[in-house]
Amino acid sequence: MPQQHNNLLTRFRRHLQAQALIQRGDRLLLAVSGGVDSRVLLDLFSHVQAEWDLQLAIGHVQHRLRGKEAEEDAEFTAKLSSNYGLPFYSKAIAVQNFAQEKKLSLETAGRELRYNALAEMCGACGATALMTAHTQDDQAETILAHLVRGTGLRGLRGMQARSVIPHVSFPVLRPLLLFSRADILAHARLHELAWREDHSNADVRFRRNRVRHELLPLVRERFNPQINASLARLASIARENEEYLQHVAGQAFSEALIAAETGKIILDLQRFRNYFRGVQAYVIRAAMERVISSSALTFDETEQILSFLNPTHNQPLAFPRRRYLWRSEVEIFHEKAGIVFSKIQPTPQSQFLEIGRRCVLHDAGIAITVAPAHDALWRKRSHAYLQFVDAASVSGKLRVRFPQAGDRFMPLGMHGFKKLSDFFIDAKVPYARRASVPLVECEKGLVWVCGYRLDERFKITPQTQNLLQLQLESLPINSPLEEGSGVSSLQ
Fold first, then answer.
1. What is the CATH number of the domain that holds 100?
2. 173 phi and psi, to 5 degrees?
3. Do 361 and 333 share a structural domain?
4. Rounded to 5 degrees, what angle do the CA atoms 12, 154, 246 make?
5. Buried (b) or exposed (e) across 91-109, using 16+ Cβ within 10 A?
6. Which of 66, 131, 318, 488 reaches 20 to 30 Å from 168, CA-CA?
7. How many other C-beta atoms are found inside a 10 Å radius of the C-beta of residue 265?
């Protein structure tokens, strides 16, 4: 075996051990396109398969963008799997259609669909991880592309040797990041490996290819012949600093956390403002990721939220009515001494209430029961979640709904109407809870602001002959919808 080949294989073995990328007996899916990088990946793993007792399979994705050439790539890869005696999985994806439908670039659409397809293959073969053939050159291109586009520490890390793709949630390992493309080509030629050339890689209409064929060669020739190694060092430094900041931010987040619910995080405002701005940015990302797992804050969005939460000295310290709306998915606002990150939920559908039956609003996590009452002790039994009204004053069907702009009612004890929004302010109802306060109404208007106040027009008087009991209860988390609950949705 040629010495250079043996050296590359030795470095590969050492790298696997040093990084603990694999364990003895692992079941791995190798992503093989047929190009030289993935061809060498397959060859290297074939040499270490027996000593690590690995179970290998090959996964190939066809993007339907290169016609006959792509079909030949698939045939070539299938033949490779046969030659190596490995299971072969293949899938064709409609990148063009997906890109148009989702309004994505071909590169972004192709990456998302490719990882989705490879995730399916991992599941089909029982693989514990996916191996890709990204090299040090790919790393340099990635970091340079991030720099040109604009990035922070996270982007400067480039690709990680071990990572998890968020939308598919399975481990992706990149064991060739240590090696340059020159290393890969030398290995392939010395070992007389055959591979396929993807001619679309030369198409400079794609940003990645412009970085590869125009920007990197210019930097290498005019500024730094060792730019790949320099960018790899930058990635390593950025990764170490990112890990440290993540650790500090994790502690800061825990210290500032006041409350955590599904879709909602509340942080201590003063503690937050005492952190360095850089730590604040990481705390914001941590809160957003807990509220909505698909959160991907841009630099500009993070800066806007930081400015919102850190007003200038000419502004008051709290803005109860001010809010920052992130992509119509998350609302961020001040509440007393807290910062609330709240996922915007669709308003639960209005529902009719039938007398004598329990109405469950599963999406809202509550149940309301309206029933006839004959209780002389109604006054003593009444509390925030159990109220009694004059049945004769109720007209038409009762229903339960949630606050809308312009809602008004006549709070018990008053003789004039008041805006519901003003009532909430006076009653110090936390802003985060106002949209989820149930309202019982009839044809005359609001009967009960549940948990807070009855309407004066429906109160029990000496002339009252028949009573209705209104009861609000919270459902246990994940409580199933009960049969016979009397739910009838409004259309």
1. 3.40.50.620
2. -115, 140
3. no
4. 100
5. bebebeebbeeeebebeeb
6. 66
7. 25
